[in-house]
Amino acid sequence: xxxxxxVICGGGSTYTLPMIKTLCDFRxxxxxxxxxxxxxxxxxxxxxxxxxxVMVEEAMGGVEVxxxxxxxxxxxxxxxxxxxxRAGGLRMREQDEKIPLRHGCIGQxxxxxxxxxxxxxxxxxxxxxxxxxxxxxPRAWIIxxxxxxxxxxxxxxxxxxxxxxxxxxxxxxxAIMDAFAESLGMKRQDLTPRYFGLNHFGWFTxxxxxxxxxxxxAIRTMLKSGSAAPEELKGDAGWVxxxxxxxxxxxxxxxxxxxxxxxxQYYLYPEKMAxxxxxxxxxxxxxxxxxxxxxxxxxxxxxEHGSIRGSGLEKGVHGTYIVELASSIIRNENxxxxxxxxxxxxxxxxxxxxxxxxxxxxxxxxxxxxxxxxIPTFYKGLLENQYAYECLTVDALLNGxxxxxxxxxxxxxxxxxxxxxxxxxxxxIRANRDYWQVK
Length: 439
Ligand code: NAD
Ligand code: G6P
Ligand code: MN
Description:
The chain is an alpha/beta fold. It is 49% helix and 15% strand. The site of manganese (II) ion has 5 residues, from loops.
C-alpha cells in the first residue's frame, strides 16, 4: 500500500506528542514513510522531536522522523501538512486574554477581542507557510487547525482562492459529540450530525444513530438536568464548567431544539462570563503551568526510558479526528466531518461567500458540503453579525485599516460598548506592535 510523508507545522505544539501516538496507533490506516516536524522554536520542538523518534522507532521502526526550522525545504515531498502553529506563542495568548479583561470584556483565545488580536498575528504566518507548501508540493493536502480558525479560513479564502486542498478544521464539535456519545454509551463514529454555523459559533440541529433515530432531544433533556464532559477533559475543571454551561443555554433557548457549541457561552452571556474570569490568572497561565509542563515531563521520560511504556501518553480526540479525515481522503471513504468551508448556498439565507462550519462528505476528491437549508431568524441574525465581525477583522489585517479594526471589535458581541472597544484596541495595538499595525 502507498505510504505518505506528513509535515507537522508547529511541531513543538503541546498537541504533537498525542498526535504522534495517534499516528502510531493508526499506522495501518494512515501509512507513513516520513514525519517531518517543522517549527520556528528549537527550544520547544527539539525535545518533542527526540521523544517522537523514540515513539516512532518503537511502534513503526523504519519510518523517518526529521526536525526542520526553515521553510525552504520543509515541504519538498509532502503529501499531507498538518498546521498547528500559535503565532506569538502562549505568552501572546496571555495578552489576548488579559487585555480585554482589563476593560471588562471576555478574554479568550479565539472569541472576542482576544481572537481578533490572535487572528491578526496568525494569518500572515499561516499564509507564509501555505505559500511555501504550494511552491514545493502543489498537491499536498493542508489540514489547518491553527486558530482562530474562523479568521484564518476567511483570510486564506481571499489569499488562496479556489484552493480545495486547504482544509480548515476544529475539534470542538467532535469533542462535544464524544461527550454525548459517552453519556449514551455509544461510539462517536456511530453518530451522524447535522450542524450549522461559523467556527466556534454553531449549533447541532440533529444527531442521528445508525437507524436514523434523532438522539438530540434525549441529549437536551440530559443537558438540562446535569452536565456532560468528554472523558478526556474530565480532569480539567475549566472544560467541565464549560460543558456544564451547555445546560443553561439549552434551557434558555428551547424553541428549535438545537444544541449550541460550547463557545456560544461567551457570546450569549458576555457579562456573566467576563465577571467570572480572573484577570490575573487566565487560561494561558493554566496551559503554561500544566499542559506545557506535562508535555516537557513526558518528553523527558520517554527519552530517558527509550520507550513510551509507563509515560502515560495516550492518543487524543484531536489527533484521532484529523487522522480519520486523512484516512477518508486517501481511502475515498466518503465519511462525514464537520468542516469550515465556503457556504455557496448550503445555507441559502446566509452570504454565499461566508466560510461556514457544516457537515461535509470527505473523499479522494476532497470536501463536499451537505445542504443545510435556511436557518431561523435568531440564528441568522447572530451569524450575520459574527460574520461581519470576521470580515472586518480580515479587512483590518489585509489593509492595515484601523477604522475596520474598531468596527470589527464593536460588532463582536463580547465587546459590549464602543468606549471599551476603543480602549481595548489601543492596548492590543501596543501589545502586538511586533506582529501587526493599523493606521
Ligand atoms: P503551543 O504554543 O504549545 O504550540 C504551537 C507551536 O507552534 C510552538 O511550538 C511554536 O513555536 C510554533 N510556531 C509558532 N509560530 C510558528 C510559525 N510561524 N511556524 C512554525 N511554527 C510556529 O500551542 P498549542 O496550545 O499546542 O496550540 C497549537 C495551535 O493549535 C494553536 O493555534 C491552537 O489554537 C490550535 N488548536 C486548534 C484546535 C482547533 O479546534 N482548531 C484544536 C487544538 C489546537
Ligand atoms: C478546543 C477548541 C480549540 C482551542 C482549544 C483550547 O479544542 O476547538 O480551537 O484551541 O479548545 O483549549 P485549551 O486547553 O488550550 O484552552
Ligand atoms: Mn476549535
